[in-house]
Each structure stands twice: as structure tokens, then as C-alpha cells.
Amino acid sequence: MTDDTDRPGDRKVALPETADAVVYFIGRIRTPWKHRDDCPKNGGESDAVCTIALDERYAAGLKDVATCTHLVVLYWMDQAPRDLVVQAPRHYGEPHGVFAMRTPARPNPIALSVARLLKVEGMKLSVVGLDCLDGTPLLDIKPYFASTDAFPEATVGWHAARKAREQAR
Amino acid sequence: MTDDTDRPGDRKVALPETADAVVYFIGRIRTPWKHRDDCPKNGGESDAVCTIALDERYAAGLKDVATCTHLVVLYWMDQAPRDLVVQAPRHYGEPHGVFAMRTPARPNPIALSVARLLKVEGMKLSVVGLDCLDGTPLLDIKPYFASTDAFPEATVGWHAARKAREQAR
């Protein structure tokens, strides 16, 4: 994806010559966003209702999913470059390591969002909290457990420092 | 892995004949647990310090990771069966859909833990909060953002009901 590559400060690596494992796309995510620039910066930035459409093959795997209030959704950022290790974010200047960012550009372009589940109807899950392009391939759905997944005290230092600088302006 | 298969209530599907994408193992996770039965039930159950050893190739990707207090760690459960869609959990009886559980058995055996970062030394990250076997392949490291990832109010209905039943006994 051209807008993810060749920004000042970007750093690339040669990827391994052989893959280690394979993934199956188990469904598709339907969102209102058809172009990268339309997507919200993260899942918290939009109240849009999105639909996770699971393939019929895996139907039985949804048993009891409707009892969850929140889901971890894993999806495949199939348009992202995989050879970037340092990248200047799209929305602000200074480059960071890709493992310190939620950019789709990373060796394994697996994105993660926590989504609020509204309803399950057949193979379709209505959720709020996704940020991806319409048609994004689905990899996994997991129940979100507050006991092991919620850390309200967590901080990302470089990001907090940037926000503080912006507010001081 | 035999202890993940052929339990009463298990339900399998035929997986697709072709894969949709490939992943690279970008490092290994070192933990104290050499056998499945030694592993904690989840990352919150142990204070053991584990080590994420990233491959040298991706070194630059760690820039600014040390400023994060918590990380999302994705890893590949390479010993889990991929064809189960309904499974009776190891620790208690009633079967659930794999998408309503955090079992490693799922079409794409990608596991997720939120880990507390203690330090970064070269390619090695010391963390608390992992639950996997020693040598587990690493897929990704992401910063944990409380603003989009922390939902302390989230509940998993089937799990809460089971706990309530246990406490009523």
C-alpha cells in the first residue's frame, strides 16, 4: 500500500525466504469504510456498527458467543507491507518501531480490535469498535475476559509524551 | 495434541484445502513450562517472569517498545488441533464453541496474552502474564492502549454462570 511505504524514517528488512505456518480466512468483516483514508484511526474513534460474517463451515464455533459482551477480533491486513520495522506514523511525524505501534505494517499483519457485541444472527455478528476496510479477512474471534485482558492503568510512553507535547502547544 | 481431541461433546470440521496467507515466526517465547499440564490456565494465574526472544532480523522494530508498560503478545499454538469448532474445556465439562473460549484449538491457532513489560535488553523482553509452553513461536508484539483495549466491565456470560454454579455448591 503506497501510503504505508517510503515515508521519511521508514526502515525495511528482508523477510525470511520460507513461511512457518499458514492461516485460513474464516470470514469477512463488513464496514462502512471503502478506502484507507476513510477508516477511523482506531476502533474507539467510531460508533459505526460493523458486521463480522463468519463462513458457514465454522458455524458451530459460535455456540455461546452471544453470551459475551465484548470480543477480541483478529483480522488480516492484507494490503499492508510486511517488511517495515520502523515507520513514521501516518498521522504524526516521528518514526517508531512497528512493535511499538498498532500500524498494520508488520511482519505478520494481524490486527486486533476489542469490539462490543450487539447481536448474533446466524453467521453474522453485529459489533461496534472496528476500524478496518470493508471486506477485511477475518482470522479469529475470542471472548474478552476483563480479568486477564483489561489493564486500565497501562500506558504507552512515547504516545503519552506526544500527546503532552501537542497539548503544550 | 491428544488431550485436546476426542473429548465428549467435541465437534470437528473439514478445514479448507488451500491456505489463504502465511505467517513468519519472528522469535520464541521462553517460559518455565515444558509440558501442557504445567502451564497456567491463563496469563493472570502466574507471576513467573517469561522472556520474549525476538529474532535479530527484526531488532529495529523494538524502537520505543521499552516505553510501554503492557504489551499484547500474539503467538502460534503449534501443537493445537485446528479442526475443532466445539470443545469441552479441559478444566470443566460443558462444551462451548471455540470462538467463545480461549482454547488454543481453533482454525487459526493464534493466542493472545496481555503481558506486563519488565525490561528490554537487546532482543530479549522480560514480561509477566504469559501462559504458554516453553519455545512457543512468536507472531507479533503490540503496544497495549488502555483507551481502546481495556474494558473492565466486559463479561463472558457462560463463564460467569459456571462460576456462580460452582460457588453455589
Topology:
2 copies of one chain form a homodimer.
Chain A (H helix, E strand, L loop, with lengths): L10 E2 L8 E3 L3 E4 L18 E6 L15 E7 L7 E4 L8 E2 L12 E12 L2 E5 L7 E8 L2 H4 L7 H12 L1
Characterize the structure shown.
The structure is a homodimer of 169-residue chains. The longest helix of chain A is centred in the last third of the chain and has 12 residues, at 157-168. In chain A, the strands form 2 sheets. Chain A has a 6-stranded antiparallel β-barrel with strand order 3-4-9-8-5-10. The first copy, chain A, has a 3-stranded antiparallel beta sheet with strand order 1-6-7, with no helix packed on it. Chain A is built from 2 helices and 10 strands; from the N terminus they run E-E-E-E-E-E-E-E-E-E-H-H. Chain A is mainly beta and 169 residues long. Chains A and B meet through strand 2, strand 5, strand 7, strand 8 and strand 10 of A and strand 2, strand 5, strand 7, strand 8 and strand 10 of B.
Summarize this entry quickly.
Chain A is mainly beta. The first copy, chain A, has two helices and ten strands; from the N terminus they run ββββββββββαα.
